[in-house]
Structures are given as C-alpha cells and as structure tokens.
Amino acid sequence: RSNKGIVITRDGEEFLGYARQVAQQYNLLESRYIGKEVKEHFSVSMQHYTFAVQAFIKVAKELEMDDYEFSVHETKTYEVIENVKKQHSEIGVLYRNEFNREALSKIFRENALEFKPLFSCDIYVFMASSHPLAGKEKITFEDLRPYPNLAFGQGDNNSFYLAEEVFSTHEYRQSIKADDRATMLNLMIGLNGYTLCSGIICNELNGDEYVAVPFDTDEKMEIGYIKKKNMPLTVLGEKYIAELKKYKAYEETEK
Description:
This protein has 255 residues and is of the alpha/beta class.
C-alpha cells in the first residue's frame, strides 16, 4: 500500500500464479465430470501382435465410440506387465513357452497377476513375400543363416526371458533390434530380414507383402493374456478375449 494505491507484492504475484492453475484445473474437472456421464474406459497392452490389434479394432467397431475411451499399447514385455500391474491396462497379451515359463510365472506371482492361456501355436518364420526363402515348405536355422534375424528391443529390461521372439538365446550370424512394428516390416523388405513368431497374419492390417513359413521345430508358443489376480474382467474385457480366442480356429485351420 502506498500513496499511489495498492500494489501486489512479489509473493502475491506468485500466489496468484498458483491460484490461476488451481482454478483452471477445477474448470477442466468440472467440464469433464460434473453434469456429464463419465465415459467407460478400456485399455489393453500387448507384445507386437497384429492379431491383438485387429481384435481390439473389432471390439471398438461394435461399440458407440463416443461412449468410451479406448487405449491400446503395443509395447515391450516388461511394460505390458507393468501396465497390467498398475491397472493402466485391464489386459496384457503375451506369450510363454518352455523356455520362459518359469521366469514369467515368478514375475506374475510377485505382481499379483495371473496368466490365462488362449491357444497354442506352431512357430513360423515371418518375412517379406519377396524373400528368397518365401516359397519353401519348411525353413531351418541353416536356411536362415545368411539373413538378419530381427527382434524387438526390450530396453533396460533386456532379459532373454522377456524377449518377444522364441530362440532368443540362439547365436545368430546377424541380428538387428527394432523398436516398432513398422520398422520391423521395413527391414524385412529392405534387408531380407525375418523374425520367428506365431505366424498369424492379418492381411487387413499388414497387406499381402508378408508371408509366414513353418519353422522346422517341435516347439510351441502359448499365446495368452495376463490380468490382475482375482479381479473379474469387465464386459469390454470379455468381448476382447472372445475376439482373441477366434484366432485359435485360425491356427487349427493352418494345420
């Protein structure tokens, strides 16, 4: 206060700055929740599986999307587990086999998660349809030796047990890590790279530029999902799992 009137002090200016932020946040909350129905939220996380994305798309198409908030995370194995553990996602889609079963089961137990099998599948070599081996009936490790093996990087949690690809401990002559599916597909075309996977191809999303050829092995992959232990799935969760289970029929048809 002075003979010229009242002036806001420096502390007062700082206080008003914080107060404006609080007021703005309140207005956002009011417009988001008060007087409006809260949208139902559904989120899934997954390893890099096109079929899991396609199943998500089918569920979303069946619903009035204005009534829901959807999120899908195609990400690293550790983040799939963390997202379900922290309930950022209701469901996490991943695989297990004889090699990683014990290690993953321990992680699931420690984080109050449970694994639910969906279907078992053979192992395939996934590659561009222009690849020199694309026409073979069955492929061996020796056939693959001249070509780069492609795998999804797992960041700081780069454990063999968290790898998305089977035979992660095999000594490949050439190996390239990628962070996303688009890069992986580009490497298949540009470098004749390949990856070992379930072989379930979704032409609606990937197009017809890629093929899956049976790999010469007796080993299997078990595709399943994780959820919080003793917590029932929501209606949307049940719908999504029903879509995923349809790929069991796909695997049986391929056989």
